[in-house]
From TrEMBL:
Residues 9-174 form the Glycosyltransferase 2-like domain. The lineage of its organism: Bacteria, Bacillati, Actinomycetota, Actinomycetes, Kineosporiales. This is Polyprenol monophosphomannose synthase. CDD domains: DPM1_like. Keywords: Glycosyltransferase, Transferase. It comes from Kineococcus gynurae. Belongs to the glycosyltransferase 2 family. SUPFAM superfamilies: Nucleotide-diphospho-sugar transferases (SSF53448). Pfam families: Glycos_transf_2 (PF00535). It comes from the Bacteria. The keyword Glycosyltransferase applies.
Length: 251
């Protein structure tokens, strides 16, 4: 590909004030020079205000904020964020070429973005930042049982859904716009991280070429985890439903 691919990174936030302040400049300065769309569920800690302050320091359109009325979960934030990212036409009538999804808590390495872009240039429609491939890793500081739980959840989903990817449960992904636009987003209704499984499954159902780039996943050092037993429960039962009914059958 000769022309630079224009990229927007969608970052969902809930109470990530400190993390987003550190992440945004690093992301904007990445060699792939993406624009950023933060999807904030009116975080009480003022995350949205910090995003707007940072946006003023950069060119128009490099940082956008989508504010939602209240906390509705990761899935809802991404459905809204993807829909907005596909609407934005930052270059005259042109859309972005690529949409990246990424957590705000520092778990997903910004340094992996150039390799993910290279995988798209090599023909991938979807690139997963993957922990369970050679060169990938979970946080060294995690105790063995936490690693086992994370790996076990991934094997469970991957095996039941017969998905030919190593990391089905991760949340760091680079989408080509035609593929993302082909997803039936309003019918991918998971609330929590089951949404990650659902969207990759939907891509596989469409015959997409999926590539995996190794990442070292880093544990958040600031702010609180939003993971809950309800979210884990949803993920487990929705995998069973998706096994019967496909990606849109997780209700
Ligand atoms: N807009 C929005 N963002 C959310 C919501 N829940 C989580 N996030 C964001 O989504 C990203 C990933 O969050 P989770 O994986 O749910 O939780 P986490 O705190 O990262 O969990 P661990 O890191 O696994 O402990 C972070 O940037 C969160 O701020 C939500 O309800 N709304
Ligand atoms: Mg996290």
């Amino acid at each position: 590909m000769t022309q630079a691919l224009r990229t927007v990174v969608v970052v969902p936030t809930y109470e990530e004030a400190e993390n987003i302040a550190e992440m945004l400049p690093a992301l904007l300065n990445s060699p792939i020079a993406p624009d950023v769309l933060v999807v904030d569920d009116s975080s009480p800690d003022g995350t949205g205000g910090i995003v707007l302050e940072i946006a003023e320091r950069y060119d128009e359109g490099r940082v956008r904020l989508l504010t939602r009325a209240g906390k509705e979960g990761l899935g809802a934030a991404y459905r809204a964020g993807f829909a907005r990212a596909l609407e934005i036409a930052p270059f005259g009538a042109d859309q972005y070429d690529l949409v990246v999804q990424m957590d705000a808590d520092g778990s997903h390495p910004i340094s992996a973005l150039p390799a993910m872009l290279a995988a798209v240039q090599g023909g991938a429609d979807l690139v997963l930042g993957a922990r369970y491939v050679p060169g990938g890793a979970l946080d060294d500081a995690w105790p063995w049982y936490r690693k086992a739980l994370s790996k076990g959840a991934n094997v469970y989903a991957r095996t039941l859904l017969r998905a030919p990817v190593a990391d089905l449960t991760g949340g760091f992904k680079m989408w080509t716009v035609p593929l993302l636009a082909s997803l039936p987003l309003s019918r991918l209704t998971a609330t929590g991280y089951a949404f990650q499984i659902q969207t990759t499954l939907a891509a596989l159902e469409r015959g997409a070429t999926v590539a995996e780039v190794p990442i070292r996943f880093a544990e958040r050092t600031r702010g609180a985890s939003k993971m809950s037993s309800a979210i884990i429960g949803e993920a487990m039962t929705s995998v069973l439903k998706m096994r019967r009914n496909g990606s849109t059958g997780a209700r």
